[in-house]
Amino acid sequence: MATPLLKRFYQDRFLQMRSFALTLMTVGVAAALLLHVMPASHYVFSPSSWHLLLIPAAIYVGGVSAVWIHNATHGSFSPKWLNWVCGQIAGIHQLWGFTGWKLIHLLHHMYSDDEKLDTHPPKGMSLWQFGKIMFVYSSRQVSSRYREHWGDTKETALIQQAGLAVFLTMAAANLIFWFALLGANGFVFFFLPSYITNHLLFVDINYSAHPADPKTGETRPANLNHTPYYKLANFLWSGIYFHGNHHRKPLLFNPRHMPQRAARPQTDDLKEAA
């Protein structure tokens, strides 16, 4: 049985760097091959009105990417090998890589709504403020957990700086891969809208689906399905805004369909006591 990722994170100080490097090498080779075989015209930006039809498809794919990486993180796909495949594809699309995203999300579940330990706590911020810092703050929280475990030493700092350099190079390679695959027009009208949609979707889920209690100000996961947008998003993207259900049952592929517990039959003793 594979060792859970968080356990490996605390056992292997080079886990993240190795994951970033493997993705970088794989995607880099694929991008180089595409750039070699595709004609030069593939990379000339020559938009036509029909390219606008790619944008609705891109928006949908941005949400599918969110569903894939989220459910792959929790092992919700069947057969099990699909979790790795879908997670890797979505990780390349979102530029993080699968392992980087998975670490952030698992730590979010472990410390959900803890102001100091959650990887993206929304408390005390507007949606705009949260959207601006979520990406960077999440990465810093993982780095903080790393330093706490391995020690705030020069060696740790060097490893993290090297890991950041590999991560940024990997993200750049991912971008080049999508440009090489889709061409200039596809990159602008398909990849960019899908990436923006994906990012904004995660911002809204992590903020709006963790509303603050009006009395205490504390935030907690909630289900959102009360507006036309949330209803449509839940229909298109496997109940993605049923976030309260997801935190209660993370393995559900579609958290809209929360299993109902059957009432326990009363025993004779309980019936007599009643």
State the share of residues found in helices, binned by percent: 55-70%
Order of helices and strands: HHHHHHHHHH
How would you sum up the major sheet?
none
Identify low-pLDDT runs.
Answer: 266-274
C-alpha-based Rg, rounded: 21 Å
User: Which assembly state applies to the chains in this document?
Assistant: single chain
Euclidean distance between termini CA atoms: 47 Å
Mean pLDDT: 92
List the total number of helices.
10
Strand content: under 5%
Task: Write out key terms for the chains shown.
mainly alpha, 274 residues, disordered C terminus, single chain
Tell me what you see in this structure:
- This protein is an all-alpha fold.
- It has one domain.
- It is 64% helix and 0% strand.
- It contains ten helices and no strands.
- Helix 3 (54-73) packs across helix 4, helix 4 crosses helix 5 and helix 6 (127-150) runs antiparallel to helix 7.
- The longest helix is centred in the middle third of the chain and has 55 residues, at 154-208.
- The termini are far apart.
- Mean pLDDT is 92; it is low at 266-274.
Summarize the structure.
This protein is an all-alpha fold and 274 residues long.
Present the secondary structure layout.
Elements: H1 5-9, H2 15-37, H3 54-73, H4 81-93, H5 98-110, H6 127-150, H7 154-208, H8 228-236, H9 243-248, H10 268-273
Helix pairs in contact: 2-7, 3-4, 3-7, 4-5, 6-7
